[in-house]
Amino acid sequence: MPEFQYKACNRAGQVMQGHLTAANRQAAAHALRTQGLWVTQLEEQRAARRFWPWHGEGQQTAPLPVDSGMAGQRPVPRAAQVAAGHTGDATVWWQRLTQSRLSRRDTVLLCRQLQVMLAGGLPLHEAVRTLAQSGAGTARQRFLQQALTDLQAGRSLADSCRREPQAFPAAMCELISVGERSGGLQEILARLADYLAVSYAAGQKMQSALLYPVLLGVFSLLAIFLLSIFVLPAFADLLTSFHTALPWPTVVVLTVSRWLQAEWYVALAWLTVLGIGAAALLQVPAVRLVLDRWRLQVPLLGRLELYGHWLRLCDTLAVLLESGIRLDRALQMLPATTGNRYLQLCLRRAAQQVVAGQSWQRALQSACPAAIRDMAAAGEASGHLPEMLRHAADLCRVITTSQLRRLEALAQPVAILVMGSLIGFILLAVALPLLDAMTAIS
Q1: Deepest in the core among 4, 9, 61, 175, taking most CB within 10 A?
Q2: Is the Cβ–Cβ distance between 125 and 41 less than 8 Å?
């Protein structure tokens, strides 16, 4: 029977290593799982090693504790350094800017696939190697190859995830690290997959609700621009040949049309400058903080965004607490799960108040709905905070769904009304002089 060398974690988080013989890799992994060990590495030894006396048939060496941080660490290859961005070459930075990144959909699929493969008895490095063989040239494959290199070098999967902060926030990396140390990585990945799937579905619904108004606005502005450049100049000579006072809508439309036709490059330059200026202004922390707070207070859209953020925050905080992470540490990791600067500031204040022994709900008074604060306070008082956070997340999900439906019902007619009014104004500006001329002739 083949012999395997393994590295595994027990329930206390201690890393063990040793040898055992089994019929195949799946049988070896199953034998370790029945002993309460979580397999992190499992490699078949060469046949020559089976002839040594202390590696007898059907025997298993006693597991030895090892240092999980640097055990078996090898120098990282040049390709891995390039993928991780550890070199300072301009070529490497250009490659990082141009290569694709992991999307939210890739993150959901990776968590679910790893969870299923670990549940089937495969060790972690074998599951990562299997997944890395598909999707050549994609960001997903690059991440998995880097993760496989890290695992073979003795590092953890959480270390690989920390190199992709846009796909794996700090809270997710901490959960994966807890799962690896405690031997419950399969359960952690299952919770993360469920949470990410719900969050991804909510984001897709919001994009679908806003897609039609955005497309309608873009095509309507394009139609107005084409009318001003190509159609209205053909009517300009006809409208001015009447030698009568033109209505004010016609004067406005003809003035704008002539200016765009003669100074279109100036308009393009101004739009470019305004776009760059707005992007630079958004990078200022104080401006971004004020803007993010204002976004949460906008009628209809602000309520939708506020409850959408707290849906993710409540789910994430519940998962962190259920995994055994302290409340102060969980609150410190929560800001990475939201992109709103104002919410991040409030969450940091809440973490500081927990460390100081005060109530953390008070710091969230201006950024958290009252119903969620009351549910969190009741859960903390009763000792069932994770369960109450789950209920709060369900409440946020119901409110977000109803707000999305209301927004979808209002956005389409409002967009049609606004764009139709603009196009109708142009048509009215052309038709009024013609009607005046026909009236004068008659």
Answers
A1: 175
A2: yes
The sheet carrying 15-21 orders its strands as 38-44, 3-9, 15-21, 64-66
CA angle (359, 362, 365) in 5-degree steps = 155
**CA–CA gap between residue 418 and residue 414 (Å, rounded):** 6
Report residue 194 as tokens.
Answer: 């469920």
Q: Distance (Å, rounded) from C-alpha 213 to C-alpha 215?
A: 6
CA dihedral for 345, 348, 354, 356, sign (positive or negative): negative
User: Pseudo-torsion of CA 290, 292, 298, 304, nearest 10°?
Assistant: -160
Predicted confidence (pLDDT) per residue in 294-321, tens digit: 988 888 788 888 988 898 888 888 888 8
Give 351: exposed, middle or buried? Use CB within 10 Å, 0-12, 13-18, 19+. Answer: buried
Instruction: Please identify which residue in the block is written with the tokens 């506020």.
Output: 306
For CA atoms 366, 367, 368, 373, give the dihedral sign: negative
Q: For the whole model, what pTM was predicted?
A: 0.62
Contacts for 432 with CB less than 8 Å, ≥ 6 apart? 247, 249, 250
- Of 350, 344, 337, nearest to 292 (Cα)? 344
Neighbours of 54 (CB within 10 A): 7
d(Cα 122, Cα 63) in Å, to the nearest integer? 19
Q: How far apart are CA 186 and CA 178, in angstroms?
A: 11
pLDDT digits (tens, 9 = 90+) for 129-149: 888 887 656 788 888 888 888
Cα(333)–Cα(368) distance, integer angstroms: 17
Q: Which of 423, 403, 405 is nearest to 415 (CA)?
A: 423
Region for residue 60 given its phi and psi (left: phi exceeds 0; alpha: psi -120 to 50; beta: otherwise): beta
Question: 264-269: long-range contacts at Cβ-Cβ below 8 A with a sequence spacing of 24 or more?
Answer: 264/229
d(CA 84, CA 165): 12
Residue 198 tokens read as 């719900």
